[in-house]
């Protein structure tokens, strides 16, 4: 077949959110799970459904899937009068009574309804922009708040959720179109109708992706249960492989990290199978964080492939050349194996992926896709006479699109259309590539531990604030182990404590700590991390030490894209 001569291209979209739910109260402290679901996860499924010849890898963090499920349960119980919606923002959308003007609760809710991209979301809709302008006046002149109608919050809540709605839903859903045309004076019936749309989108995510997988159009893969950084759980010292001078936490080892890494993967596979009814064969280890030991754990749990950033393979090639100076540079567009581990490792083309994340948002969609595909064509041409190349674009699946017009609708539509019909490039999946006999992995003796960001772990460890967070986690784990060993908890309590510990092990908390991040987001995440730790101590019946109640990090930076995304190479950083 002619298609067999085409250069494989893999688009891998990684969908993940940490746990925003307080497991002691059931309350969601931040709304990003359901907002990104209605905006980004739904749109990505729709683009693939619209272009049946397109293919992609979609990776889900299990803790995200579980939170979507919790939202569905809470909404359904609320509908039947047997429970509350645990997200204050979503609950406010259908609340019979909203906070009175000139009260702290009013201001809190107003501010929450303005946490959206000002240019691409708020200013896109004149009615939303007017509400935001009024909110700014009230913020600067609080004495005017007593004159605000209660309708203000009602309309702001509706427009906030309309603004976050996926573009494919906006174009097809009659309820959303009707609400946008109405523009203001939204009634309770309007607000409940909007909640119904949100529920339908949330409930459709699992079945839609499962159907795409059954058709062979999407390969579904998984990350560790709570998006934990496995190499650091296994060995904090692995951070020294790429950064020998890095300063590590006072605790030099995460207690029983090997057992915890195995637990994270077992739990991930259980949740994944419950949602999608299949066994995952691939694992995007959180943030592409890999080490030789991590590859071994992935192999033990029957994963066939994983992936990371291109700096990791460059570091590994450089190390191999120290022993074998004649070793050719196979580059980033080849699959690899390391040592005796059979897991195939693919590497992200950081240049191509970062063009999507940081450059193309302001381009015309056809120009952006044309430029991207031109780069891919050049890569394919340079590979003539060499083993068949594999071009990997691996990206966060949610955070880039709010910087694009209409949530990236035109860019993604054009991207899938062009690549699905390209004469020399072929969209495929990693599992299909692993199964091909003519794509032979390059074997290197050792993988130098690192992540897709800079090829190091500096985003999660080494900074004083990050190291303090690791010390808090290690100390909590020591107490957790003692309680587990003494048998004082029953089976249900042990299971709850295990999951709470896993939440504390998530990589996102460490990502945000540090002065280079925005103060508001750092404040949100460090508060949530400490709350999760306090909950863990309560679950194991041990008093939380005073250090858990002390602020870890403040933040004062203004990184590109608010810090939710990073370029793969430090030299390319736009922060």
3D architecture notes:
It contains 22 helices and 10 strands. By secondary structure, it is of the alpha/beta class. The protein has 3 domains: about 300 residues, 7-stranded beta/alpha barrel (Alpha-Beta Barrel); about 130 residues, no CATH class; about 100 residues. Strand 1, helix 1 and strand 2 form a beta-alpha-beta unit. The radius of gyration is 24 Å and the shape is globular. The model has no long low-confidence stretch (mean pLDDT about 95).
Could you give a quick summary of the protein structure above?
The chain has 575 residues and is α/β, with parallel strands linked by helices.
Strand-residue proportion? 5-15%
CATH 2nd-level architecture of the largest domain: Alpha-Beta Barrel
Text of the CATH class of the largest domain: Alpha Beta
The residue fraction in helices comes out at 40-55%
In this structure, how is the largest beta sheet organized? 5 strands, parallel
Question: Over the alpha carbons, how many angstroms does the gyration radius reach?
Answer: 24 Å
Total domains: 3
CATH topology annotation of the largest domain: 7-stranded beta/alpha barrel
Poorly predicted sequence stretches spanning 5 or more consecutive residues: none
Q: Which key features would you list for this structure?
A:
575 residues, 5-stranded parallel beta sheet, 7-stranded beta/alpha barrel, 22 helices, alpha/beta
Helices and strands in order, then pairings?
Blueprint: E1 7-15, H1 32-50, E2 56-60, H2 62-79, H3 88-93, H4 104-112, H5 118-122, H6 126-140, H7 151-163, H8 167-172, H9 174-182, H10 188-214, E3 218-222, H11 230-234, H12 257-276, E4 282-283, H13 292-300, E5 305-309, H14 310-323, E6 336-338, E7 341-348, H15 350-358, H16 365-382, E8 391-396, H17 409-420, E9 425-427, H18 430-435, E10 442-444, H19 464-486, H20 491-504, H21 508-512, H22 519-540
Parallel strand pairs: 1-2, 1-8, 1-9, 2-3, 4-5, 5-7, 6-10
Antiparallel strand pairs: 6-7
